[in-house]
Structure formats: C-alpha cells, structure tokens
Specification:
Structural class: alpha/beta
Radius of gyration: 17 Å
Largest sheet: 8 strands, mixed
Number of strands: 8
Length: about 220
C-alpha cells in the first residue's frame, strides 16, 4: 500500500506527494540502489525533496528527508524490496551504476513485474557517474557536506546506516570507488538526483512547459 498520495494543487495545478503518516509534502521522490561490496551489505535509499523552500545562508533550498533505508547482503532481498519501495513511495527513478553486472537482476525483476501488472523499475546511472566511479567519492561526499554543514537541510529522521558510514570515511578513501561503501553511496546517489539536477520553482516550470503540465511521467 502506497505511503504517499499524489495530489494536485487546486490553484496552481502543481502535482506533489503527501505522506499519509506525517502530512509532509514533497515535490519529488528519488531512490538509489548499491549492490553488496565485499563484506559490506548492499543498500537501498529513498529520499524526498520537500515542496516548500527554506532559507540557507541567503540561498533558497528545499529540505531533503530520508524516507526509507534497507540494507542486505542478499541481492534477491534488495531486488524484492526495491519493487515494494517503488510502490510504497511512488519512486519514478532509481539511480544505480549500470556498469555493475548485477543490473541484469533488475531486468529479470521487471519481467516479473509485467506479468503481475505491477509498476516497473526505472533505473540508470547516478548523476555525475563515469565508468566504474574511480575518483568520484569526493564529488559525491561534497554534496552531502553542503546539506549537513552550517544550516542543515538533510534529515535522516532516525538511525541511518548511510550517515554512519559517511562519518567513517577517511581522507585516504578519496581514491576509492563510492560503491566500495554501499550505504554511503546509496545516500550520495539519491542526493545527487536532487542536487545535480535541481528543479526550478513551480512557477518557472509552468512557464517552461507552457502551463501546469504533468511532468511526472504518468502519475
């Protein structure tokens, strides 16, 4: 059962998500998947970007909340939970490195989703991703630092394995691949979908699309 409702603002026509349990309103929902690496379990993260803006040291920025996080060293568990989270949170897109050979499991999952007439998993490389990610850890780490230093705009809303793993990163880890740290990378990749590809405000989007268009891909 979906934890969100997709609504339309009666005045502006803007479409947005409202979480049933908290009443929070989000302009977009993004997810990420990072497979297990060595002894570190894989991780799924879903983030929501709030509808309202906050002032951050003179800049207007939307808060980001972690809505759910799942860790497992069993890839079948990750895939099944990804399908469920797609429905629970109405996730339109999952960021996951396509260079990983295990991506074929998502194709198989979509075959099953089609047979069951369930929502498909839409996925692709994270924003800024190149090759297998060598040397990209500082880039993604900086995105999280922007939202956690000074005025905080990234909220975990409870214990967060990804945040713990990020805090454990050391300077010597800078040359490693983000996916060597699955929980940290899952948070980084989801956050990159928001911060590397910022949406303009609704009024600007309405002008861009020529009116209150439904830009959310069928919802």
């Amino acid at each position: 059962m979906a934890r969100l409702r997709l609504l339309r603002d009666a005045l502006t026509g803007e479409r947005y998500y409202r979480e049933a349990a908290t009443g929070m309103a989000f302009r977009r929902i993004v997810g990420s998947l990072v497979w297990p690496c060595g002894e570190r379990p894989g991780c799924l993260v879903v983030l929501g970007e709030t509808r309202s803006r906050q002032n951050v040291l003179g800049a207007l920025r939307h808060d980001v909340h972690r809505l759910e996080e799942i860790r497992s060293d069993d890839v079948s568990v990750l895939v099944s939970r990804m399908a469920r989270m797609t429905e629970d949170w109405l996730v339109q897109y999952w960021a996951t490195p396509m260079a990983d050979n295990r991506v074929y499991l998502l194709d198989d999952a979509n075959d099953s989703q089609r047979r069951l007439r369930r929502p498909l998993l839409h996925y692709g490389d994270p924003q800024g991703w190149q090759g297998r990610g060598e040397g990209l850890l500082p880039f993604y780490h900086a995105l999280a630092q922007r939202r956690t230093r000074s005025e905080k705009t990234l909220f975990f809303d409870g214990p967060c394995d990804a945040a713990v793993e990020i805090l454990k990163l050391q300077p010597e880890d800078a040359s490693r691949r983000p996916t060597d740290f699955p929980a940290a990378a899952a948070l980084f990749f989801a956050l990159a979908e928001i911060d590397v590809d910022p949406w303009p405000e609704w009024g600007e989007r309405a002008k861009l699309y020529g009116g209150p268009a439904d830009e959310l891909g069928g919802y």
